[in-house]
Amino acid sequence: MTNKEIQQLINKYLEGETSPEEERLLALALQGDDMPEEWKTIRLMLGELTMGEAEYDNIMEQRKEKPSAILIALRTISSIAAIYLVGLFFWLQQTPELKTETAYNQGKPTPPTSYCTEGTPREILTCYLERRKAQPHIYQQLKQKIYENQ
Length: 150
Hints:
With 150 residues, the protein is mainly α. The chain is built from 7 helices and no strands. α1 packs across α2 and α2 crosses α3.
């Protein structure tokens, strides 16, 4: 808005002929600090309520702008990643059930299934290697069955 238009609105306001919309426009135009002293007094005359309404309208106009496509894509990707991570967390919390058959055991008792599923990864690996050394025939039979099924 030019200075001439602002001055015309001020004159109209002082004569009492402005509409509420024109008062809001005037309040928006008078929001800056670099203006003549007489305009600052008009701003005081408009009052805090009108100035606040104008500032609120200005903020709402800025919010109406649509977000960019990049921002929407980033929000979508981050949402999908969060859902994936939550699902992965719950999937990793499940305890696997080991199914053993008597053909692989050949009548020998098997250790409990939780024997090698608890502890740190190093402890689990150590437990697995100890079980493999204790019962090598079971793992050889498993390898053979897997090879035959391929």
